[in-house]
Design a protein that fits this description.
By secondary structure, the chain is mainly α. The chain contains eight helices and three strands; from the N terminus they run αααααααβββα. α2 (16-32) packs across α4.
Length: 187
């Protein structure tokens, strides 16, 4: 069943992260119901699992939604079963806290303590608005020094976009490319 779910996700070009998360939640759901096959269960069992996550595990609303979407995917796309609308589960509590945002001075303190590649990645995150996975996937051909822009390929939602390349990162990026090129030639 998990292999079948994985194959469907790959045919539909789901991201690897989504695949891992969906497989995790499908597995948790099956274990929660003592290894009972999902085709033998219905909306009642899905609601019981989602309620358990909120009440017993005290998960965040976004985590509960992740589990819900994984199970909807399992039933609709893999098992070809339409569940009646799920509404009899206890929703997880929404966070009452506002996210913490660092000041410019706090960011400067952090960046000043980083070195080499870690410094470069953190500056790309801060200065270009890249997500971590986007910064780690950057390739030389994604850097356009002439237009001072970065091409983000296959970003969130599977789309491509352009973002700015901070002027202060042009030289460090070029130095990193040269350093890696020398390492590649030596290898």
């Amino acid at each position: 069943l998990l292999d079948e779910a994985r194959n469907v996700m790959r045919l539909r070009h789901y991201s690897y992260q989504t695949e891992k998360i969906y497989i995790y939640w499908i597995r948790q759901y099956i274990y929660f119901h003592n290894l009972k096959h999902p085709a033998e269960m219905s909306a009642v069992e899905v609601e019981a699992f989602l309620t358990h996550l909120a009440v017993e595990n005290n998960v965040a609303a976004s985590t509960q939604n992740q589990a819900l979407f994984a199970l909807l995917f399992l039933y609709r796309e893999v098992l070809k079963i339409n569940l009646p609308w799920l509404e009899d589960f206890t929703p997880a509590k929404k966070s009452e806290r506002v996210p913490v945002v660092l000041t410019k001075d706090e960011v400067k303190i952090i960046l000043d303590r980083l070195k080499d590649v870690n410094w470069l990645i953190a500056n790309l995150l801060y200065g270009s608005g890249l997500r971590l996975i986007e910064a780690l996937r950057l390739r030389v051909q994604d850097l356009d020094f002439g237009f001072r822009q970065i091409v983000v390929r296959d970003g969130k939602g599977g789309s491509d976009r352009f973002t700015i390349m901070p002027i202060k990162l042009i030289e460090p990026l070029q130095n990193q490319i040269e350093k890696v090129k020398k390492l590649h030639d030596r290898d």
